[in-house]
Known about the structure:
The chain contains 7 helices and 5 strands, in the order H-H-H-H-H-E-E-E-H-E-E-H. The protein is an alpha+beta fold. Helix 3 packs across helix 4 and helix 3 runs parallel beside helix 5. The longest helix has 23 residues.
Amino acid sequence: MISIESPVVRSGHALEEPVSSSRLNCFHSCRWKFFFRYVEGLRKPASVALHVGSCVHRALQEWSRRRWLGRPCASEDLREDFEEAWMSEQLNNPVSFESEDEPTQRDKAWGLVEMYLAQTPIPVNEKPEAVEVPVEVDLTQHGLTTLRGFIDLIRPEGRIVDFKTTASSPDPQQAYHRNLLQLTIYGVLYEEATGVKARGFELHHLVKTKVPKLVVTEHPATGEPEKTRLFRSIESYLAGVEREDWVASPGLQCASCEYFQLCPGGLP
């Protein structure tokens, strides 16, 4: 296991917040973007794709919750919850539809939900072990900090499911590579909460092609090498945030960055 010295935490600093996969991924992809989002707290209008993904996610969360409670969970039972999510998400995170037709996008999002209900490999009578469960683990014994995450769905026997909306069909190996940090975090959190290791992971990709489809990729439980890599990533994050290392990382990802127009302004 890893043992490093704990960094000094300044009052009111971004470092005081628990570490999550979204924070780690943002920091390691572009520290300048991290500064705008988590230090300055700047919030830009949500993209249409992000809004669609959030609403689909909430509908599937309700589907899982209803199965856990033994309540009706057919598509007609979920439509009202979906419509409510579509409106409430816009109140919390305004969306710039611009030339996009909102009713059309709403119908496409609901089409993804209906497609998933028709194609999901999860039996409707299978009771989840947990749904949208928030978990935290104190890693100070490793010289780190608090790790936090929200697990979408835990199937029986500790199989963790995460829902993804995507524009194209994923390659299993690339999907595992892109999501390895998040899956490792889920594995660490699950083991801390239950005392046993997660059996494995499933990424349920809802693909937004002309005819929507579901692609499920299955991945093995993470081991010590993956955990060590995660801890090193957290170590790098803590050190960088502590010294306010806000360095831009120009690349192809800049085209879709919500802070692109602010980037030429220079470092803070």
